[in-house]
Amino acid sequence: MIGSIKALPQSAWLINTVGVLVAISAAVGLGVAITKGGVPVAGALIVLPPVVAYVLLCIVRPVVGMWTYIHCSFFINGLGRLLETEAPFGLAIDGLLLMTLLGMWLSTDRADADERPPGTVNVAVFYLVLAWFLYTLLELLNPETRSREAWFYAVRGVSLYWIQVVVIVLRLLNDRRQIDRFVRVWLGWSIVAALWGFKQQYIGLVHGEIMWLESGAKKTHVLFGHLRSFSFYSDAGQFGAAMAHVSLFAILKALEEPKMIRKLVYAGLAVFYFWGFAIAGSRGPLFVLAVGIIMYLFLKKNVLILTIGIVIGGGAFGLLKYTTVGQGNYQVQRIRSALDPNDPSLQVRLENQQKLGAYLKTRPLGGGIGSGGDWGRRFSPGTFLAETALDSWYVKIWVESGVVGLSVHLITLILMAIIGFIQVARLRDPTLKSTMIGLYCGFVGVAAASYGNQVFGQSPSNTILYVSIALFSTCYRFDTPPVPEKQPALSPSYSA
Q1: Which of 177, 185, 256, 480 has the greatest CB tally within 10 Å of its CB?
Q2: Which of 374, 353, 366, 351 is nearest to 397 (CA)?
């Protein structure tokens, strides 16, 4: 054995010796770390190698990071509640988006097996989102800003995620099969979310969910002895909005689908999701359905269908507004209360808006991103904006970025709606058009319903909206190419 070692070349012997010493040192170091840190350190060391491998995979194949982000956005907000931990799982979204963008910058990855080249971001929707992002960036200079740290946390849901996702989708999601995959992921996770909501409503809650209610959420999630299901989303309001959104998509696909079996599947899903919306006890998301269907009727440009839709919609409105049909059901009571102008909750919101209007009259740039809501209570507690409820997305934008910011934001959304309407109306492929109609009408419906709830900036609705905006505003990329016109044959005399 000794002779064989001595027979090795000196350089090889030196390399082997260094390798052995490094291995021994690493083993000793790991042993000391585990001894002092215990199980948490041991677990971290076990998890570290696959995490590093996954980060490298996302950089080499950024499309993996994109799909991971889409999947995680459905459950990330409720994960801490289910695991009974205060770990900041939301920061995982930041990491996924940054890794995906880094991978796009460093690699020449293709989004699919056909090696289609990455798409371009040189489109109108990118510049609209960029304008809004730059405005929120300038809000750092707002003299009313109380906390720069609050800005960092709050700006992510206001504009940062939006521009990141739009860039990623425009570059990587550039194939019809990927659009179908996105829809399947959305419908699939929504089924799981609805089932968990049914479990909460009809079977019971797990320990972590009970603790979450007892820590303060009970006052808004248990009303008159009835639980408002929240599934594994952030709260019941977000769960209800997400269910209304996906229900609208399924309804429109059922109306557009030519094959009867697929019509029935989508119709069944629409009923399934709608019941998920009902058990959430959320009233505002009802307008996702109402406004989305109205926009669908206008997109169809068919007087007969528009008339029938108005009659059916008017009948449903009259049934809820002027009758007591179904009043014995608590979910129906909650939905009906959304149409009551004298509802106490609505009156409180209007009073708060009057107070905020007086406060913001001399503050055209608002109080600063992160000055209101949860971030305001965390970083600037006791201030007027932090202690005043911001129940509406647009009120939140108004309060934090002022009338100037609200104007920029609304113009951005209106221009996106106009661009989307034009692009979707021009589509020729019926299958693609039915999907884009669902995505577009969902965007318009959520934008309208965000007047009553903070739907637009909450996960997973924001993920679905950001992807939808990037897709329907550039849907011409996926359309069936026009059939070339047949050229008339040249006459013999002309060809001669």
Answers
A1: 256
A2: 366
All residues at 6 or more sequence positions from 339 whose CB lies less than 8 Å from its CB, including other chains: 317, 320, 321
Query: Residue 227 is inside which H or E element, if any?
Result: strand 226-227
Predicted pLDDT of residue 215 = 86
Token reading at 305: 């269908």
| Helix (H/G/I), strand (E/B), else coil: 460 | coil
- Give the total number of structural domains in the chain: 1
* Nearest-angstrom CA–CA distance, 98 and 111: 17
Does a structural domain hold residue 363?
A: yes
Per-residue pLDDT tens digits for 362-415: 889 988 898 888 888 888 887 888 887 777 899 899 999 999 999 999 999 999
Question: Does residue 169 form part of some domain?
Answer: yes
- Supply the range of the domain harboring residue 347: 117-478
**84-114 per-position pLDDT tens digit:** 777 777 788 998 999 999 888 887 544 444 4
Tokens of 145: 């800003």
**β-bridge partners, 227:** 222
- Within 38-90, residue ranges assigned H as helices are 39-60, 62-83
Looking at the domain assignment, is residue 249 inside a domain? yes
- Tell me how far apart the alpha carbons of residues 475 and 170 are, in angstroms, rounded to a whole number: 11
Cα separation, 290 vs 313, in Å, equals 8
Q: Letter for the amino acid at 377?
A: R
Supply the DSSP symbol for 175: S
Place of tokens 């011409």: 476
One-letter amino acid for residue 438 of the chain? G
Residues 403-450 have pLDDT tens digits of: 999 999 999 999 999 999 999 999 999 999 999 999 999 999 999 988
CB 92 within 8 A of CB 73: no
**Helix 461-472 vs helix 430-449: crossing angle, to nearest 10:** 130
**Weakly modelled stretches of the chain, pLDDT under 50:** 1-8, 109-115, 483-485, 487-496
The token duo for 252 is: 């429109």
Helices (H) and strands (E) in the chain, counts: 23, 2
- CA atoms of 108 and 62, how far apart (whole Å): 9
